[in-house]
Every structure is written in C-alpha cells, then in structure tokens.
Amino acid sequence: MRISRFIAVFIVLFAIQASVAQQKKFIVHTVAFYNLENLFDTINQSNNDEEWLPKGSQNWTGAKYKQKIKNMARVISEIGTSENPNNSPTLIGGAEIENRGVLEDLVKDPQIIRKDYGIVHFDSPDKRGIDVALLYQKKYFKPTSYKNIPLYIYSNATDKEKEKEKEDKDDEADDKPAAPTADKRVYTRDQLLVTGMLDGEEIHVIVNHWPSRSGGEKKSSPFREAAARLNRKIIDSLIQINPDAKVITMGDLNDGPYNKSVKVEIGAKLKRDQLKESRDVYNPFEQMQREGNATLFYRDAGDIFDQIMFTEPLARKDFSSFRYWKAGIYNKPYLITTTGQYKGYPLRHGANEVGYSDHFPVYIYLIKESK
C-alpha cells in the first residue's frame, strides 16, 4: 500500500514538473547566413561587372535581376520558420553582393519589407567587386558599432616578405601592413564586424567570405588560413575586452569544418563539452558535415563551406540570457535542381532559368527564457 502511494505521489510530482516545464516560454531569434551568389544589378560600374550586364555573357536583364531579388527575398522570408514560424531571421549575413543598392532593392521586396531590415555594408577591394553585408531587423537589433577589417594576403611572396607578414599579424587587425608591393596583393573580401544589442544583450557578429579555391585547394589554402587567423584575432580582441563576449562568426569559408583554417587556426570544437574557456569556439556544422549534410556540391561531392560558429558564452546551458539552441541547413525542395547532370545540387542561375544560389543558407536559433 505504501509503495502504491509512493508511486502515486511520484507520478503527481512528475506531472507537476512537466507542466511547469511546458509553461516556460522562450524568446527565439534566428541568425542566418546566405551566399546570394552573384547578386548584381544591371548598371555598369567601376567594378568588374561586365559579365552581369544586359549585353554581358550572362545576358543579365532587368527582368532577370528583378526575379533574382524576388527569389532571394522568398528564401530569406522562410529561413528558420520551421521552429520560429512567426519571423524570418533577425540577423542574416550575406555574401557575393555587388553593392548597397542591390541590398536596398532586396529589403524593399514585398515578401520581407514589413520586417524593416537595416543594412550594414562596406565596399571591399575584391577583384570581382563582391562584398559581404549584414541585414538586421531594426525592431530587435540595434547596431552600436561596425567596421570592415581588410585581409592582406600576397602571392609569390619571398621568405623575407612572408616573415614581415607574420610580424604584421601582431598589429591591430585593421592596420595596413607595410609589407609586399601592391602588385603582389591578392584582393579579396574584407571581414565585417558588427556589434549591437539584440533585445538588450550585446552580440558581436563577424561576416566572412574567405578566399576561393581558385588554383586548387592546396595552393590556395594559405589564403584561407590567413583569413582564419584574422578571424581568430578579432574574436580574441573582443574576448580581451569582455571575457563573456558573445561572438558569432559566420560565412562562406570555402573550407569545410575539418580543414586547418577552421580546426587549427580558429580552433573550432566539434562538441559543446570540449569548450573550456570563453574564447573557445563551437561549430555545430562539423557534426552535420560528418553526417553527410551539405550546403554545396562540387563534382558530385557535397560539403559544408557555409558555417556559423560562436564563442563559449553562447553555448552555456542556462537560458537566463541568449544561448544557442540548435542549427540547420535550409534546403527545401524548390531550392534543389531536380533533373539533369546537376540533379540534387542547389538550383542556381542558368541560361534558361533565374535560380537561387549554388549554396544553401544556414542558420542557428538563439533563445532565452521569457520573464
């Protein structure tokens, strides 16, 4: 009889605890990254945009540009809505953006205009004329500072020049090194650092588009490793100011989670329980890559180049302030090629169709308990 009463009391207590847990409410924000792949307008400008003009090789007309904007807006409006159905991403980093004008057209699209996205963008020295940027919902995120931090990398540098470049890495991240001659510089995308208040909490976001694999993965890897060292330096500078700094670094890294740039130079961890210090970085996309997921394909091999990582304070288990919940890849059927040689690949622009991108977007959720 006593055993029966004990079991009954236990069941009641368990039911009460479950009820309390179910009553907890959380504030949820989606943070995303999307390589918009060649988001060019039709206006001839000083950058290298000849391919993306009405008379260029892509026959990039006004009608195609408008469709591209519409396609990008649709994707942005839907990212993360499986778990956060009432809102598109609060923060979304972007890459392969020609200029601020295309972003202004994008945020005015009817599918997302009500979200009232603000724009943080700088022109970068990239030889293709493409930049990174951050869009943010003004209602939830208030930028307090932002800057573009250039990446100085050089080809065919002598041993002496390489040693000088190494010394320059100890300087401030945004100081231009007095290093090799300008004609040896490889012009690539800057790294964008945005600091702001997310519902009253300070968050730092770094948006990246690291150097490509042009010339081969092995030959070009030192460039991405240099980009990773710059990224690590930015993170450490923020942690030095505030040991509990919540830093998110996102982008198209042109490397997988397993490459030296990510695993060694940034030191990204596979598991949350490997995080020991606030400067440690967690990469939820490494496990996804190990499970066979992909954000892009090349020669029928999938990989995850698009990643969102963050420092240990965002990975803590209490939800009294914003913490990481989970991550995802947005790869709905309409974003996937259904026929032909590239069946299963992301549906990109082609001769007869204005597609989306050669990358799938990625996202994470940040949540905290609502008081």
From TrEMBL:
InterPro entries: Endo/exonu/phosph_ase_sf, Endo/exonuclease/phosphatase. Residues 30-154, 181-368 form the Endonuclease/exonuclease/phosphatase domain. The keyword Secreted does not apply. Residues 160-184 are annotated as: Disordered. Pfam families: Exo_endo_phos_3. Keywords: Endonuclease, Exonuclease, Hydrolase, Nuclease, Signal. GO terms for molecular function: endonuclease activity; exonuclease activity. Residues 1-21 form the signal peptide. It comes from the Bacteria. This is Endonuclease/Exonuclease/phosphatase family protein.
